């Protein structure tokens, strides 16, 4: 009986194999036909979509083929245009400028003209005028939220090595309203508070003393020195140069002045260190570099860290006051006139 059963199973297997063989041949033939059609360029009607193909593998293969064809067409068009431009020479039409969010930006009425008398008068009488008239030297106190974790602590320490005359103080349940008068009495010009969420720095409160203003930023993309590839040696105690990019509006101008007043007036060029605040689409990217002149034309740049990104949430008049503070500007997430091309800084 057992041998009989074995013979029956063998026969069944052979039968299944013979049935499967023509099906596989049919499938191979279909694939070859589709490939030949795709090569000739008349494989599908114009209304046909790749997503209509039910088989996942065939759909993916077809998608890759179409993508490659598009790439080849784009390259051919590019080569053709290049040849035409070369043939025309000086008479060639100007190159088309690609559309970006930056160059499609809606013009802001509050954009600052540096030569405007009103702007110059405001700068001469604002809260930062004492610093820009060289009457005060910056002195910064860096503190954290209650019970900071290791990553936030390291971030504060690295900020202190980067900003001259900065001191780190860990408050233990002490309210900011009590910290501010102590800072003023000890000659500090700035109070910087790093907040955290789930052991990660996520907020920064920058309070200019003694008269304000106070800015609240969202912090993201924090990279400490150890997490950076090909970073340079730790920064020296030299005063760095400061670069402020794209702070064009009235609000951006005051934020830029706020960052500038963090650093002493006269940078020490011997240290070759640069702190950059680059504003792009209302995101402020911070980078800290060391540069070296290789020759008259080439300059080498080495990032020292840390690096992070800021997004302005609010600007408050005077020192920090969460209950009765008067706000100059607040970020509204769901504005009626909000647009991807409208920026505030």
TrEMBL record:
Cell division found in the keyword field: no
Signal peptide as annotated in the record: none
Domain Brix: 138-321
InterPro entries assigned: Brix, IMP4/RPF1
Entry GO CC: nucleolus; preribosome, large subunit precursor
Pfam families with a match to the protein in the record: Brix
Compositionally biased intervals (Basic residues): 1-15
Subcellular localization(s) per the UniProt record: Nucleus, Nucleolus
Sequence segments annotated as region (Disordered): 1-26, 75-96
GO molecular function: rRNA primary transcript binding
Biological processes, Gene Ontology terms: maturation of 5.8S rRNA; maturation of LSU-rRNA
PROSITE patterns: BRIX
Keywords carried by this UniProt record: Ribosome biogenesis, rRNA processing
Domain of life assignment: Eukaryota
Function in brief: May be required for ribosome biogenesis.
Name listed for the protein in its UniProt record: Ribosome production factor 1
Source organism phylogeny: Eukaryota, Metazoa, Chordata, Craniata, Vertebrata
